[in-house]
Design brief:
heterodimer; A: 437 residues; alpha+beta; 7-stranded antiparallel β-sheet; 23% helix; B: 490 residues; mainly alpha
Chain lengths: 437, 490
């Protein structure tokens, strides 16, 4: 019985199903589970527009339920709290009818956001995804005056979502936007949604995902260093695959030996565990090697000291900062850091528009400390009110608007002020100085 | 001083720690002695820097080096005085040979065979070298990337190093260095010191101690395991430690205090286990390391109190349990076998425990303890955290496959050492229990569910658990063969 326990446990993990089943739009509970809206996509404006399911559905010969649209994008949100095991449910799935009869059709832009139980952070990822389409010979429909011989039942899935470091644990809310990228509108509108859900993946799909996960390399980042790694279809990470295989083999061998000889092969068990350990360790070694390679090829990485490393701006600290901002920082942060070093006077109190925290940026704060003081509203840290900001570092043009005629600066997290531009870079980074409240 | 300052920062703790090492330790157990001395020195150095900073002293190369030199000299003189008082016989005793953390006479107890053992050692040393080179390569080229580095630990280190003092004005935007002021100062002070000595701030200098900590820990554990189980097991332990992914990441990337905490906790545990057999020198080393744990992270205070409780209760059990069972006597507690002596020893231990607890509270008082109230207010069983915790135990970043090996060994160790080393069993159980309690009964359950910080907590206790597990599988008789331990230990 003991020997059987590990394989049974592994099998249980494989067959585990904590899913949000596919729900047809005409099902009574659909409206309770999902909120679906049509998006009127226009450049720089993506307001969700309420549309009731099927309110403007085209007449089809097919009486299957659907939500129809003549517009471009869709916005889908879970209404109630979900209880989906991300490790088991590898991707949300949206089924619809497509106007294209060709398999695959135009790629679809997607943006997905989700929140996990016990974690207020909202994670998001986006990209373009080819459709999984199959011709549906049973239907024929006409749209926009064009008649097609065969409609296409299609579904969108995000096959790489399970590789995202935060698609793990229990997912309790998701929001999915399809074809809502105003900058790259799809040539082919989606037509009618049939069903939405986050179904449990098949065992085959989970095994395929396991192989992808095994090959996956997650560069060390502020997230992964804190131990979030991509999930695994067995519920954890690749190491379990190794351990599981070893334990299953051990269990099988032990069972056989007990049946035959009545004793446990301790040495064989030790060898198998050691083999599993070595396999796991080899993978980790390879990951570190790839990390080293990723460091050297990171955007903005400086292979050898360059002249700008030794640039010393006015008012440097007594140590004289003689090295460049870390190469793995975003280029905008690196440029802004160097600009601020050169422009800001000692003791300057500044805010940051477009940083990674409210009215600030942790990287710039670190880089400019202690010579300058950043606005800080964290209740657990020494406070520096936003009203004290004499300077505003703008990291991108979208983060602030400056009225050149009136000299008024409006930036996120900072009270509006009359300001003057002190310095600006062609890429959009700029530093403003307050001239009056 | 430039880069020479970094070298001084690396070597000075070794000299400081060596000032309180036992005589002859370097000759008898060179690898373990060097690792222990460096770790002890780091604890002393960190504590000294924190005290200087909180006292408002200037933190310059001259002032800090003078303080370190003075402390080392004082320790060296004190050690000499204690040696003379203890007499010539005690000073030559291998004071740590009977403790859990060491036991040189028993290294051949589990000899896997010369050929197999040689092969295991060869493969393991190659793997260990690969791990070490890769970690060093990462550390050499990579700046810190952890979010906490920019928000807390290294931000504070940078402020302290550049200003040459610890801002003590609560109105200052850089009060206590900035960042979250409730976080202890030990790690920022250590991270700042190489830059203070070098005269310029450098991310590379700030991360100087990361790889050194990992190397010292690996040496400490490997040496201890070798003394108990032989070279092959020691080589495997070396690879296991260097291969702990999260340990490697933190060594290479800096910005977190979990690895230093794990090192000082492990060294402190091993030294206290030795100390519980009567070696006062090792007990002092254990106390210093465990006190410094309080200065490294907020949970350090709880870990320290858990260790103290285990030590005290274990000592009481030892007095009651061991006598009359045919086991060798325990010199400090039950020599003579008199109830009165045992009671006196227990009383002395209680007084020491109370004094240490007060010292820890004073140290912790240097930081904000308001989080204790917040955590206490959220106590309640969180069943939903059990499943994610079990899942995380298998993950790449904490134990990995090692979990399958070490966990059963911990159980074996607990069963085998229950009577002979009750303090060690209680302390090991306390460490596991503390982590389980934090993530099952407080609001930190959310961190277990979403995968944050639980692995880091496991990393904190993993090396100590490895050492404990290795002790448990040592062959029979290990605990009876040691020489009578020295009472002075110096």
């Amino acid at each position: 019985m003991v020997a059987l326990a590990p394989p049974v446990w592994l099998l249980g993990r494989l067959l585990d199903r904590r899913e949000e089943p596919m729900t047809p739009v005409d099902a009574p509970r659909f409206a309770e589970r999902w909120n679906v809206r049509r998006i009127d996509v226009r450049p720089f404006e993506v307001p969700p527009v309420d549309v009731q399911p099927n309110d403007d559905a085209p007449s089809d010969s097919d009486d299957r339920p659907r939500i129809a649209t003549g517009n471009l994008g869709w916005w889908i949100e879970s209404r109630e709290t979900l209880d989906v095991a991300a490790d088991v449910c590898l991707t949300p799935r949206v089924e619809w009818e497509s106007a294209s009869a060709t398999a695959g059709g135009e790629p679809i832009d997607y943006a997905i956001r989700w929140r996990r139980r016990g974690d207020p952070t909202i994670y998001e990822t986006s990209g373009r995804q080819r459709r999984d389409a199959r011709p549906n010979e049973a239907t024929a429909s006409s749209r926009g005056g064009a008649t097609q011989d065969a409609d296409t039942d299609a579904a969108v899935e995000l096959p790489r979502l399970h590789l995202h470091p935060a698609w793990k644990g229990r997912v309790e809310w998701i929001e999915l936007r399809l074809n809502c990228d105003a900058a790259a509108p799809s040539a082919e509108p989606l037509t009618a949604i049939r069903a939405v859900g986050i179904p449990a993946a098949t065992v085959e799909a989970r095994c395929r995902a396991a192989a992808r996960q095994w090959q996956r390399f997650e560069p060390i980042s502020p997230t992964s260093i804190n131990s979030i790694l991509a999930p695994h279809p067995f519920g954890t990470t690749p190491v379990l695959l190794v351990a599981g295989l070893a334990v299953s083999a051990i269990a099988a061998l032990t069972g056989l030996r007990i049946l035959r000889a009545g004793r446990v092969p301790v040495q064989a068990i030790l060898v198998m565990i050691a083999a599993a350990w070595l396999l796991s360790d080899a993978r980790h070694l390879a990951a570190q090697w790839r990390q080293l390679d990723a460091d050297e090829t990171a955007p903005g990485a400086v292979a050898s000291p360059s002249p700008d490393r030794a640039v010393a701006g006015p008012g440097h600290d007594s140590f004289g900062a003689a090295h460049a901002p870390p190469p793995h920082w975003p280029a905008a942060i690196r440029r802004a850091a160097r600009l601020a070093e050169a422009v800001l006077p000692d003791g300057a109190v500044y805010a940051v528009a477009g940083g990674n925290i409210e009215a600030g940026d942790t990287r710039l704060r670190y880089w400019l400390a202690p010579r300058c003081v950043q606005v800080n509203v964290d209740p657990l840290q020494p406070r520096v009110a936003a009203e004290r900001a004499e300077f505003v570092i703008v990291l991108n043009a979208d983060a602030a608007s400056f009225d050149t005629a009136g000299g008024r600066l409006a930036a996120r997290g900072v009270p509006p002020m009359k300001a003057e531009r002190m310095a600006a870079l062609p890429d959009g980074e700029a530093i403003y100085r307050r001239v009056s409240p | 001083m430039s880069d020479a300052g970094a070298w001084i920062a690396l070597v000075a703790p070794l000299l400081l720690g060596a000032a309180m090492s036992a005589r002859g330790a370097l000759r008898r157990r060179p690898i373990a002695a060097v690792a222990e001395a460096w770790i002890d020195g780091m604890a002393l150095l960190g504590g000294l820097l924190v005290l200087m900073a909180r006292a408002g002293a200037p933190l310059t190369a001259t002032s800090t080096l003078t303080a370190v030199g003075a402390a080392g000299t004082a320790l060296w003189i004190t050690r000499g005085i204690l040696r003379r008082r203890a007499g010539p016989a005690a000073s030559c005793v291998n004071e740590s040979s009977s403790g859990i953390g060491s036991g040189a006479r028993n290294r051949d107890g589990l000899n896997p065979g010369a050929t197999l053992g040689g092969a295991v050692i060869g493969v393991a040393l190659l793997l260990a070298a690969a791990h070490g080179l890769l970690t060093a390569g990462l550390a050499a080229g990579a700046p810190p990337v952890g979010a906490d580095a920019y928000e807390n630990w290294l931000l504070r280190a940078r402020v302290i190093a550049v200003r040459g003092e610890l801002p003590l004005d609560p109105a200052s935007p850089y009060y206590l260095g900035g960042g979250r002021v409730g976080y202890p100062l030990g790690w920022p002070m250590l991270a700042a010191w190489p830059s203070i000595l070098s005269g310029r701030w450098s991310d590379r200098f700030a991360n100087l101690y990361g790889p050194a900590y990992l190397a010292a820990l690996a040496l400490l554990v490997a040496a201890s395991v070798r003394e108990r189980l032989g070279g092959a097991a020691a080589a495997a332990a070396l690879v296991a430690l260097l291969g702990l992914p999260l340990a490697g990441y933190q060594a290479a990337r800096g910005g977190y205090a979990d690895l230093p905490l794990a090192v000082h906790l492990t060294a402190g545990c091993a030294a206290m286990w030795d100390g519980s057999r009567g070696s006062r020198g090792r007990a002092a080393s254990g106390g210093i390391n465990l006190l410094f744990v309080v200065l490294l992270k907020r949970e350090g205070l709880a870990l320290f109190l858990v260790m103290l409780a285990g030590w005290f209760v274990g000592g009481r059990l030892q007095c009651v349990d061991v006598r009359g069972r045919g086991d060798p006597p325990w010199p400090p507690l039950s020599t003579g076998g008199e109830k009165k002596a045992a009671a006196a020893a227990a009383g002395a231990k209680a007084a020491m425990t109370a004094a240490a607890a007060v010292a820890a509270m004073v140290l912790a008082g240097l930081a904000d303890l308001s989080y204790v109230g917040r955590e206490a207010g959220s106590i309640g069983l969180r069943m939903d955290a059990i499943r994610p915790m079990m899942a995380r135990l298998f993950t790449q970043d904490s134990w990995g496959v090692l979990w399958w090996i070490v966990t059963p060994l911990i159980a074996v160790a607990a069963a085998r050492l229950r009577r002979r080393e009750p303090a060690a069993v209680l302390q090991a159980g306390g460490l596991i229990g503390f982590v389980a309690f934090v993530f099952l009964f407080t609001a930190n359950a959310d961190f277990a569910i979403n995968g944050w910080t639980f692995d880091r907590s496991v990393l904190q206790i993993a090396p100590a658990m490895m050492l404990f597990a290795a002790a448990g599988v040592a062959p029979d008789g290990t605990w009876r063969m040691g020489s009578p331990p020295s009472r002075s230990g110096f």
